[in-house]
Amino acid sequence: MLFENRKQLSTLLLPAIVVLGLLTAYPIISVVYNAFLSVDIGSGQHHFVGMANFAELFDDFFFVTAIQNTLLFTVVASTAQVLLGLVLALLFHRNFPGRRFALPVIIYPMMISTLVCSSIWRSWYHYDFGFLNAAFVSVGLPPQEWLFNPDFALYAIAIVDTWQWTPMAFLIILAGLQSVPKDISDAAMVDGATGWKSTLYITLPLIQKQILLAFLLRSIDTFKLFDKVYVMTGGGPGNATETLSMFVYKYGFRFFDLGMASASSLVMLAISLAMTLIYAKRVMKGGKQ
């Protein structure tokens, strides 16, 4: 037996538990505590204000807009990534010439640093010198204000996120496809279910769990979007791309209002936790209703 008693095991795990507590439990407790206070960074004084921070938040046009932007981005980006990942997984589940060389190319964007990826796409989106506008002009289309059009800037960032993180959804779904027993598809062919019918009515129901898992992981990640917005638009134009993470950053590190920053962090945590519980419940059930 590796450990003679529970006391030895507890002693071994104690350092990890202490580190986990310092890095996870303490920040959460601190945020919850500060959310009900008005904190003056300069003097170090604070006083209890109850739910006043939350009431002020939901009366704040910029906070409500940040929630709307975040939810819209989450739905658009995670849906696009999972659908594209599904299409790519179905394609790569079959053998075709050059498959071994194409697979690393598909996965490559996920390996790039997010800041590097954002900087690359920001240069591609440049109105005068960007690659995309140059391509548009070459085929007779007008150049676009990708990051300066309030109606399109959020979708432009969603394109970047989709380019970078579709490979994650692709790998999860491909793993699900490869776990489907070949006997099932062979039996379907014997029964006359071939091509898209076999995929639609047999393969996809069997990998619902993997598809939901891809949705869960991508939704969590897109919901906390910060780095791409920070690098590419800073929340602009206006507040067209301001997300909840960006809102928290501005209040905490620009305005130094820890009470409002903590309250908005708790709202963000509550929304993400609700999303996670919904997805996780369905994943635990194996994708069943």
Attribute tags:
13 helices; mainly alpha; transport; single chain; two-stranded antiparallel sheet; 289 residues; MetI-like; membrane; MetI-like fold; cell membrane; MetI-like_sf; 71% helix
Concise overview:
This protein is mainly α and 289 residues long. It has 13 helices and 2 strands. Belongs to the binding-protein-dependent transport system permease family.
Structural features, described:
This protein is mainly alpha-helical. It has one domain: MetI-like fold (Orthogonal Bundle), CATH 1.10.3720.10. It contains 13 helices and 2 strands. The chain has helices spanning 6-34, 52-58, 61-92, 99-111, 114-124, 131-138, 153-178, 182-190, 195-206, 208-223, 227-232, 244-253, 258-284; strands spanning 37-39, 46-48. A hairpin with a 6-residue loop joins strand 1 (37-39) and strand 2. Helix 7 (153-178) runs antiparallel to helix 10. The radius of gyration is 24 Å and the shape is globular. It starts with 5 loop residues before the first helix and ends in a 5-residue tail after the last helix. The model has no long low-confidence stretch (mean pLDDT 87).
Note the topology:
Layout: H1 6-34, E1 37-39, E2 46-48, H2 52-58, H3 61-92, H4 99-111, H5 114-124, H6 131-138, H7 153-178, H8 182-190, H9 195-206, H10 208-223, H11 227-232, H12 244-253, H13 258-284
Antiparallel strand pairs: 1-2
Helix pairs in contact: 1-13, 2-13, 3-7, 3-10, 4-7, 7-10, 10-13, 12-13
Subcellular location: Cell membrane
Keywords: Cell membrane, Membrane, Transmembrane, Transmembrane helix, Transport
Pfam families: BPD_transp_1
